């Protein structure tokens, strides 16, 4: 994986802040890689892996989140089973079938 230090240095000041962060860009520009790098950075800074939830809606492994309501229920269960701040990464969320509901997810 290519380390993208310039981009990471721009993201770091916002890590841990209680605001939603959105990475946007053209297709295949490395947004998914950046999400992985941020997760690795969190782990290297002491965040336990079980506090990180990463869902790639393009992956077959994410079939449990095949609808907005299923994804939301999974997220609620994930959060309820942990104590403290969780870190949520949603990749390719536009792949959810209910487009208008996904916009307010």
From TrEMBL:
Organism name: Petralouisia muris
The name this protein goes by in its record: Uncharacterized protein
């Amino acid at each position: 994986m290519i380390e993208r230090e310039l981009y990471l240095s721009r993201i770091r000041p916002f890590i841990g802040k209680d605001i939603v962060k959105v990475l946007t860009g053209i297709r295949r520009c490395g947004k998914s890689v950046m999400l992985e790098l941020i997760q690795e950075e969190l782990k290297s800074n002491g965040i336990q892996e079980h506090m990180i939830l990463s869902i790639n809606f393009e992956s077959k492994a994410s079939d449990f989140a095949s609808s907005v309501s299923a994804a939301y229920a999974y997220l609620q269960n994930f959060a309820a089973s942990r104590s403290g701040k969780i870190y949520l990464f949603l990749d390719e969320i536009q792949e959810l079938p209910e487009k208008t509901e996904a916009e307010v997810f």
